[in-house]
Design brief:
The complex is a heterotrimer of chains A (165), B (995) and C (272). With 165 residues, chain A is α+β, with helices and mostly antiparallel strands. Chain A contains 5 helices and 6 strands; from the N terminus they run E-E-E-H-E-E-E-H-H-H-H. In chain A, helix 2 packs antiparallel against helix 5. In chain B, strands 29-30-36-35-34-33-32-31 form an 8-stranded antiparallel β-sheet. In chain B, strands 3-5-1-12-9-10-11 form a 7-stranded mixed β-sheet. A 5-stranded mixed β-sheet of chain B has the order 7-15-14-13-8, with helices on both faces. Classes of the chains: A alpha+beta (165), B alpha+beta (995), C alpha+beta (272). Chain A: Keywords: 2Fe-2S, Iron, Iron-sulfur, Metal-binding, Oxidoreductase.
């Protein structure tokens, strides 16, 4: 049993996009704040901090989760993926990013990292998804700009069960 | 797909579906939004203490304990801010004193009362509960019509009335037209409060510079930069001493990031008082309760028409509800639409009465659509009703009254100079491509089966590029003459060609995701004949270094008509200069030069050519080789204005906008009789927005607008109780459609009638569905269920009651249960009643109730209770249900004591989670073996607990009351055998389950 | 919106937890997935002195399926139960209800037992526990006890868990062999807390019907000799007994109406 005392900072380390990172967090520090302001990975965005909007979605141990509903200390030793880790090593877009680009699937881009990480976790499963399944999967991510059609199309281009023209 | 009909020029970037340059940054998570920017070491973080009351006088504020908290460097109140500020002015003379933070009084739930500046946001929030504010609650008013009554509580004593402006406008001869018309139809509409709540909230870093006496602010403010003047005046500094910068990226705005400027003023002074930069990122709860919303409106609208369907006149009286304060440019939305008071119809006469009302709600601001949804909901609903009253097909009637294609430019009676269009063609294309006849057949088939199916229509003139002078229409002719003319709409653009010949563009359009960088690069690349990739567009703004105008910013579809015109103009100037330079080297007249593919070539002899970059380089490397008198370097600035945007006339006519597009929608909707849910069978939307610059971006704007308008139609509303309590405090209360709820409209490929008044012929495209969609759906529902009074959002519970009659009554047995534990939160207060049996004498129960020590043991979570007088107790309670707990100061008074029969109790609880005020009555009736204690209560709840916990309040209140009475039984009759179990056990027992 | 300060205990054993609970009582909260609790912490609706993270305790992450039903350990995520083939087969209704619980991201982290402990009156998992006549097992320093669903869920966000206890597992019994089940709910949006949720088990003309979102906790009734003729009156009586409440999303009347209409629809489907 370990007790982390209020007000004191303890070291938290985990794998972020394949690289070991560490920083210092209070017991109450949210994972979203830790990623953005301690590690400096500000691609993960915060938009509601009560677990509804999905903007802060990251992938922890292969599962898409809300980083505003997780404490930094709970991430100790985990494997975390964020938007910064999506592009290939030569910095070219991966399939999802490319589909989003080609489909005009983003406007302001604030919700986009959360949406991409949600879809990225589906990509891991290797299976194909129908449009209703994609829409269901995205029902925890709010976008205010697009109306979702382009996002769903981009997702289907990569994950969908339909034949891509 | 839009724009397929318009022939895109293969040689041009404009008109092509160019992929967004913005994506390269955003898709890699490399955007620089407000909270991503680095800040100076020592920057403090702000947290706001906000009013739990809709209306109260501030008796005192004590910040001394808060100042002692760890990390806290300053705590700032309205009184602290006052010496450094002047009131934030609005577009007309009025005595309201508003500086972005409460002074003496609070007027809405969520109003800033004090600011804690601490070393981090967590600590700043920690200190909030140590600020002690004593309030004297006042009666609140939330309905704009009621607010205008003589006996309504007045928000601003110095104004003396909640109706801060009333103007009557007469265009044409409406009175005569009404008298001469065969028939009249009148309806009243109530348009709710909503906002599009951008994903990124407000963010500000403010710094005071004692060396210059100026302020340096970075924020995601969206403009219009006319408001920069309002801030500078309020901060008592020259405009140049208020430096405002914007970050590279902004996470949506939809209007919301206009009215953040009062916060800029407050934080600037906080930074000055704290002696350090101060940063504030608004959180979602703050955004929902207290950032900005569209004004809700009540409109009485009447149409006069002849039996043949010719509409001769409209008369409308608006009660436009702006909440607690007016913030510039409010009340602009209602005036922005003034010129279009007759929409797309040839109605020659109109009377408009505008009442601007103050209520105890969040102040208003810009929301995509800016006054249009409210106006067009009224007009398109009354037209539908006229059709119904005449027994006519609504679309047929609309077409009959439409402005004809040969009438453009058409001067509407209220002043709009509608530049161009072909409404008949748009309607015809939509009917055809959208399959209206098929939809009608579906409706008939559904109705034949007894289903509720309706078709709705809506049309809208879609204004873009606001006339900066329209708000002056609010003033009388005499006031306008005194103030001097206001008009126009300036856009600026700066284009440079660097020594290596690459092109950079700086604009003043502060985008929030609309793809302005892409579009401007398309325009400039076309004009200069260079590859798209060679043009770099930077749209960050800096008021100390960049070119800007009062019209700068991103609002009211300014970009497509105006910013593009400025870019085109600046690019032409660059081209002219470069042609002059090249002409000298190539020995051809400049007019003969063609800019194409990175070359400048003589049209008469394409072999004679120079590389674009070489010509650009010459201007830098060799000023001596330039034509005589030519400035070195290449940097051209264009300030573009539209001469059609003239001031308000003496007769109050105003050409409110520059370029007017047109939208036409229809839809088929089925209402589920059993659930009240709507199924949108098909939604068809058509837009003529003139020249389409980039179909990918244009479609995105249409779909995005449709999605938010669908939200406004079905889900979104900021709800207040009639006592001013705010209920929509979280994203679980203010509901936004997700991919699961969103539907895809059928988009029609129709005509594009370019605007003659903009350089590229483009008009706005981003707001059309805000105008058409809510009323189109409302018209469909009206058609489906045969009801006139339709309000949005069309929630299932509301629609259910429209469709179904009275509820089936309760059977006898269930009715008998009703005496117990009834709770009702349908009105402004949470009301409850019930009774419990205590196996003790009335005297014993009475003694228990009157004994503070006993009561301390009975009141759930009571930490202390002190007797101030025989009938007055104060104490501290830690109260809640489950994990939700708050500490409250309790003040309890007993009245009308009729020992041992009845007592009235009034009291209040005040704590960080909110406040409650209530009254109740306890009655004791002795019977066999004990006494029946009956109670009834009504509680007004406010603050966090009401705005975020609404769904659970009734259950929580019932649980607490139950706990109280179980404790009463224990204390008054300690020997009595405990029944055990609570409410749920009793309920389950009644249901015949487990005892 | 940042949590108030607290100490954080990373527990390694159940005894760590029960020990800490015994010494801290009401001022401590157990966190597993935290999908309800974290939002409340961020809003400062709850300010515990000590948060006890049980997610790393070995052995609490088991799903056991046997003749009696499905037993779910305290740290089993909702998504894990939804994906568990044997559990889906044993109690198909559970997976169906789980698809309405929040969203992918919250189900990936939120636990089954956490949802039960939170006791939201509209939540689907408590409804299932009541319908199926399930139970939860609680541990304290004194030992363990198992509490039936209806004794556990006592009101809005309120359970009969004592401050010194933690949930170690929940048990969802199999429906009787041959019984038919059905689930319906109405919510404003997918994944929202239900306005009304309904589930039933039908065996011939005997029916067990559970209703969530109307009373302060889910309730179940057993109705015998049910038919299309008797049902409307039975549902009306139930609707009025539960009464419902008004909130921003729906009226009390609407809640009652959904018992009548959705309820009828669902039951007829199950009994067909």
């Amino acid at each position: 049993m370990k007790i982390l005392k209020d007000g004191s900072k303890t070291q938290v380390s985990f794998t972020l996009n394949g690289t070991e990172v560490d920083g210092y967090a209070e017991p109450r520090t949210l994972l979203s704040d830790f990623l953005r302001h301690e590690i400096g990975a500000s691609g993960t965005h915060v938009a509601c901090e009560h677990g509804v909007c999905g903007a802060c979605t990251v992938v922890v141990d292969g599962k898409a989760v809300r980083s505003c509903l997780m404490l930094a200390a709970q991430a100790e030793g985990k494997e975390i993926r964020t938007i910064e880790g999506l592009a290939a090593s030569d910095d070219s877009f991966n399939k999802l990013q490319d589909a989003f680009h080609k489909r005009f699937a983003l406007q302001c881009g604030f919700c986009t990292p959360g949406i991409l990480m949600t879809l990225s976790s589906l990509q891991d499963s290797g299976r194909r998804y129908t449009e209703p399944e994609i829409r269901e999967a995205l029902s925890g991510n709010i976008c205010r700009c697009t109306g979702y059609r382009e996002i769903v199309d981009a997702a289907l281009d990569v994950l969908g069960d339909r034949v891509v023209a | 797909m839009v724009g397929a009909a318009a022939h895109a020029d293969e040689d041009k970037y404009v008109g092509r579906r160019m992929l967004r340059v913005e994506d390269q940054t955003l898709l890699r998570g490399r955007g620089k939004f407000m909270d991503d920017l680095p800040v100076a070491k020592g920057t403090l973080h702000a947290a706001f203490l906000r009013s739990p009351h809709p209306h109260a006088r501030i008796v005192s504020i004590d910040v001394s304990e808060a100042l002692k908290q760890k990390g806290v460097k300053a705590v700032v109140t309205g009184e602290d801010i006052r010496p450094y500020t002047k009131p934030l002015i609005v577009g007309f003379e009025n005595p309201m004193d508003y500086r972005g933070i409460a002074l003496n009084k609070v007027r809405y739930v969520g109003e800033p009362v004090a600011v804690v500046c601490a070393t981090d946001r967590y600590r700043a929030e920690d200190a909030l509960k140590y600020i002690r504010v004593e309030y004297e609650p006042l009666a609140a008013i939330v309905d704009p019509v009621a607010a205008c009554a003589d006996d309504a509580p007045v928000l601003h004593d110095e104004v003396g009335s909640n109706r801060v402006s009333r103007r009557v406008f007469t265009h044409g001869e409406p009175e005569a037209a009404f008298a001469a018309s065969d028939r009249q139809t009148e309806i009243t509409i109530r348009y709710p409060r909503n906002s599009i709540t951008p994903m990124e909230t407000y963010g500000i870093v403010a710094e005071y510079q004692p060396d210059t006496g100026g302020y340096d602010v970075t924020s995601n403010f969206q403009g219009p930069f006319s408001v920069h003047a309002v801030m500078a005046i309020a901060l008592k500094v020259p405009g140049a001493k208020l430096r405002h910068r914007s970050p590279p990226n902004s996470g949506g705005s939809f209007g919301a990031k206009l009215t953040m400027f009062p916060y800029i003023v407050v934080l600037s002074v906080c930074a000055r008082l704290a002696g350090r930069p101060v940063k504030w990122i608004e959180d979602r709860l703050e955004h929902l309760s207290s950032s900005s919303v569209a004004p809700n409106r009540v409109t009485r609208i009447r149409a006069a028409y002849d039996a043949d369907g010719t509409i001769n006149a409209l008369r409308m009286e608006h009660f436009d509800d702006h909440g607690a304060y007016l913030r510039a440019p409010m009340p602009a939305p209602i005036y922005r639409m003034h010129g279009l008071s007759t929409n797309c119809y040839r109605i020659p006469n109109v009377e408009v009465i505008n009442n601007i009302c103050m209520t105890n709600k969040c102040p208003t601001g810009a929301v995509r659509g800016f006054g249009g949804p409210q106006l067009y909901f009224a007009i398109e609903r009354v037209i539908a009703q006229v059709a119904k009253d005449l027994g006519r097909d609504p679309l047929d009637l609309m077409r009959q009254n439409l402005i004809q294609a040969d009438q453009f430019p058409y001067r509407a009676p209220a002043g709009a100079l509608i530049d161009s269009g072909n409404y008949q063609q748009v309607v015809a294309d939509t009917v055809d491509q959208g399959g209206l006849e098929e939809l009608k057949a579906r409706r008939d088939a559904a109705r034949a089966e007894g289903r509720l199916y309706g078709i709705g229509y809506a049309m809208a003139v879609e204004p873009s590029q606001s006339n900066m002078g329209y708000i002056s229409t609010l003033k009388t002719k005499e006031e306008r003459e005194k103030a001097g003319p206001k008009d126009g709409a300036v856009a600026s653009c700066t284009i440079s060609v660097d020594p290596l010949g690459s092109v950079s563009v700086v604009g003043d359009s502060t985008p929030q995701g609309q793809g302005h960088q892409t579009t401007l690069a398309q325009i400039v690349a076309d004009e200069l004949g260079v590859p798209f990739e060679m043009v770099t567009v930077n749209l960050e703004t800096d008021t100390q270094k960049d070119n800007w105008s009062i019209a700068a910013g991103n609002y009211s579809c300014r970009f497509s008509p105006a910013s593009t015109s400025a870019a085109k103009t600046a690019a032409e100037r660059v081209r002219r200069k470069m042609a002059l330079i090249a002409s000298r080297f190539m020995n051809v007249p400049p007019e003969d030069l063609l800019f194409k593919d990175g070359w400048i070539a003589a049209q008469s002899n394409p072999e004679n050519r120079m590389e674009f970059r070489r010509v650009g380089g010459l201007a830098h490397w060799s000023p001596s080789s330039l034509p005589e008198g030519m400035d070195p370097g290449i940097r051209e600035v264009a300030y573009w204005n539209a001469p059609e945007l003239t001031p308000t006339t003496a007769k109050d006519e105003i050409n409110t906008s520059l370029a007017y597009g047109f939208a036409f929608d229809f839809c088929g909707v089925e209402v589920d009789r059993d659930t009240g849910e709507l199924r949108i069978d098909r939604y068809v939307t058509a837009h003529d927005c003139g020249t389409i610059l980039n179909p990918g971006l244009a479609e995105g704007q249409i779909r995005g607008s449709f999605a938010s308008a669908l939200g406004a139609s079905l889900y979104e509303e900021f709800v207040y109780k009639s006592d001013g309590t705010f209920l929509s405090g979280t994203f679980a209360d203010y509901l936004i459609a997700t991919a699961h709820e969103a539907i895809d409209p059928v988009m029609v490929d129709t005509v594009a009638t370019p605007s003659p008044f903009t350089r590229l012929g483009a008009k706005g495209i981003a707001e059309g569905n805000q105008y058409t969609t809510p009323v189109c759906l409302a018209n469909a529902v009206a058609d489906a269920i045969g009801r006139q009074d339709i309000t949005v959002p069309l929630t299932p519970a509301k629609v259910f009651e429209w469709v179904n009659g009275e509820e089936e009554p309760a059977p006898q047995a269930a009715a008998e249960d009703e005496a117990e534990d009834l709770i009702d939160y349908s009105g402004d207060a949470l009301r409850g009643q019930g009774s419990t049996f205590v196996p003790a004498s009335a005297e014993q129960v009475w003694q228990t109730l009157m004994d503070p020590a006993e009561m301390a043991a009975i009141i759930p979570g009571c930490k202390s209770l002190d007797k101030q007088a025989d009938d007055h107790f104060t104490g501290v309670v830690s109260m809640g249900v489950g994990p939700v707990k708050g500490t409250f100061e309790a003040d309890i008074r007993l009245e009308n004591l009729k020992k041992p029969r009845s007592a009235d109790i009034t009291g209040s609880l005040i704590g960080a989670l909110g406040t409650s005020r209530g009254r109740g009555r306890v009655t004791l009736v002795e019977g066999e073996g004990g006494v029946t204690v009956s109670y009834e209560y009504s509680i007004h709840l406010s603050g966090t607990v009401a705005s975020v916990g609404g769904r659970l309040l009734s259950g929580a209140a019932r649980a607490l009351v139950n706990q109280f009475f179980r404790a009463l039984v224990r204390r008054a009759a300690p020997e009595a055998k405990s029944e055990g179990g609570g409410l749920m056990r009793r309920l389950r027992a009644r249901l015949g389950g487990k005892k | 919106m940042k949590p108030a300060p607290f100490d954080l205990c990373i527990a390694e054993t159940v005894e760590d937890v029960t020990g800490a609970l015994a010494s801290h009582g009401e001022t401590a909260r157990v966190i597993a997935g935290g999908q309800s609790l974290m939002a409340m912490l961020n809003m400062r609706l709850t300010e515990p002195d000590l948060l006890i993270d049980i997610s790393r305790i070995p052995g609490l992450d088991r799903i056991t399926v046997d003749q009696t039903g499905v037993t779910v350990g305290a740290t089993v995520r909702q998504a894990e139960l939804a994906a568990h083939a044997e559990a889906r087969e044993a109690v198909p209704l559970l997976a169906e209800a789980l698809s309405h619980v929040g969203h992918i991201q919250t189900r990936n982290r939120g636990t089954v037992c956490g949802s039960l402990a939170h006791a939201d009156p509209s939540a689907e998992l408590p409804l299932m526990l009541v319908l199926l006549g399930g139970s939860v097992t609680l541990a304290s320093a004194q030992g363990r006890r198992t509490v039936a669903a209806e004794d556990f869920l006592t009101g809005t966000l309120t359970t009969s868990r004592r401050p010194d206890e933690m949930i170690v597992s929940a048990h969802f019994p199999r429906p009787p062999a041959g019984a038919k089940t059905a689930f319906r709910e109405i919510a404003r949006r997918h994944g929202d807390f239900a306005i009304v949720s309904l589930a039933c088990i039908a065996q011939g003309r005997n029916l067990r019907l559970a209703v969530g979102g109307v009373a302060d906790a889910p309730v179940a009734v057993d109705l015998a000799d049910v038919s299309a003729e008797t049902l409307p009156a039975q549902l009306n009586a139930l609707a009025w007994r539960l009464r419902g409440y008004d909130d921003i999303h729906a009226t009390a009347r609407y809640r009652r109406e959904m018992i009548r209409r959705l309820g009828l629809d669902m039951i007829m489907e199950a009994m067909a």
